[in-house]
Amino acid sequence: MKTLSLALLGAGAALLSLALADQRPLQLKHDNVKRPNIVFILTDDQDLHLQSLDYQPFLQKHLIDRGTFFRRHYCTIAICCPSRVSLWTGKAAHNTNVTDVSPPYGGYPKFVSQGLNEDYLPVWLQAAGYNTYYTGKLFNSHNLENYASPYPAGFTGSDFLLDPHTYEYLNSTWQRNREQPISREGEYSTDILAEKAFGFLDDAVSEDNPFVLTIAPIAPHSNAKISEGNVSEEGGKHSFQMTAPIPAERHRNLFQDAHIPRTENFNPEKASSVSWIRSLPRQDEENVAYNDHFYRSRLRALQAVDEIIDGLISRLEEYDILQDTYIIYTSDNGYHIGQHRLQPGKECSFEEDINVPLIIRGPGVPEGEVADVVTSHTDLAPTFLKLLGVEPKEDFDGVAIPITRASIDQAKTGRHEHVNVEFWGYGIEEGDYVLKKPDFALHANNTYKALRLIGRGYNIHYSVWCNNEHELYNLEDDPYQMNNLLDPSEGHASDSSSSSLLGFPLLKVAARLDALLLVLKSCKRDECIHPWRVLHPAGNVNTLWDALDSVFDQFYVEEQAKVEFSRCEPGYILDAEGPKQALMYRDGLRWSEWV
């Protein structure tokens, strides 16, 4: 595959040399070559499967119609802070060790304590000669007490939302550069964000250096009031109240007839899935009506974000730099409302929670195209660097996303087909309706490892929960994940000769999926990109079809270790994670050493 910077900038384009070992500043070989800019828009909790993009006309006009929509893009952990850390570092959550939104397992303090404040994308971009600007939400638990200890590194200009008011649409607190925080009570958060984003764009254009501008609104996240303290391990105390998003006044009466798509998995008559999800009661009419209101509130809150897109395009055109600028739009994680009887929220591994929007517009990007290559948030940091002509870090768990027509076509047969998904901790219910309950709805034991595998003729979800329940869905026949093929109560059993998937015994397929998940749940670097090579170092297995060859049956079914947990934990506790390394197959014999 051609180096993307050459394809985009033409012959003689500048390549950058990244000094990984000593972090020396990156230098251009040809300083006279014009380098592209990036505007990155990162929404919060935006769904793909609930059709929110259909209600954003400016996004449709300026980005989807003029760029490429990657419809198989996934977050690798469905909660805000860990997902954002993975996005900015190019590493899976089990390698950043930021696995929650607040201490001890996550949040901004954990990000700092892991040494990541000196080793993430904004720092690398500045070393490459880029000016970097950021406004909006950075991380959870980035607050009025710790914003300066230390300041987030890597920004030419910054204006961050701070906890405990990050998610209050009408009571936000902002902290600019090295200045004291300022409260903007009574003003609409997304409109303030627009003002700051356009100001940073003006600043960026006035400088000689190319720039990366990140705009991170809270929409369409719930309106949340956060009090002191963290959620207790017992789940009996809650330190936040998450109610419906608040739209700008000008948008509050829009979409009166909109309602949650009534798909097969919406508030189903028959329960599905495993663990606490399967025990959820069916929602009554009052509950469904409230959730439709919650849904409309999300759509309305997104309208101010949509207006930012239109304002950005106009300004980029006025500055005559639109043709030199990539615009990337995504969300930290997805969202569910009513699917599988769930109240509003995320944290699950269903498609609604992990399959998120990704649209890219810019030089060389096909217009009005839909790409089916499998991509994830760990691929975004490598993508940023490649777009800007910077060599990737050696410790990335992801790989750059193809964005030209030729590279997308090549990726259809040459790119990996998996996404590694993981989660630790609680499932949290949001919305006014759950506040009526006598105890706040926190569901413990929502720790799991999951795998999405999408290839020629298969579309599979496989997961193992911390109580060692298993899920297996064939999304080719069951796109709404209603039929768990490993649910004994449904008459399914992995060791049943009558159960099959892809024309093979279910046991045979499940064993391959489990081994692949065993590699991915603890993988590092290239292991995360090419996990089949860990299992088959000879390089003769690169897809599930390859692995299903009968010559490997004994290796996978009888000899390979299995994914399992010794107990449920709210964070990444190694001795609870079960086997961490897979056996390698060599020359038809079991390889007797660990990888």
UniProtKB/TrEMBL annotation:
Gene3D superfamilies, sorted: Alkaline Phosphatase, subunit A (3.40.720.10)
Query: Which catalytic reaction applies to this protein?
Result: an aryl sulfate + H2O = a phenol + sulfate + H(+)
Gene Ontology BP annotations = phenol-containing compound metabolic process
Q: Which residues carry this modification: 3-oxoalanine (Cys)?
A: C80
| EC assignment | 3.1.6.1
Modification(s) after translation: The conversion to 3-oxoalanine (also known as C-formylglycine, FGly), of a serine or cysteine residue in prokaryotes and of a cysteine residue in eukaryotes, is critical for catalytic activity.
Q: In terms of domain of life, where is this protein from?
A: Eukaryota
A single GO molecular-function term is: arylsulfatase activity
Q: What is this protein called?
A: Arylsulfatase
Q: Which organism is it from?
A: Xylona heveae (strain CBS 132557 / TC161)
The taxonomic lineage of its organism, from the top, reads: Eukaryota, Fungi, Dikarya, Ascomycota, Pezizomycotina
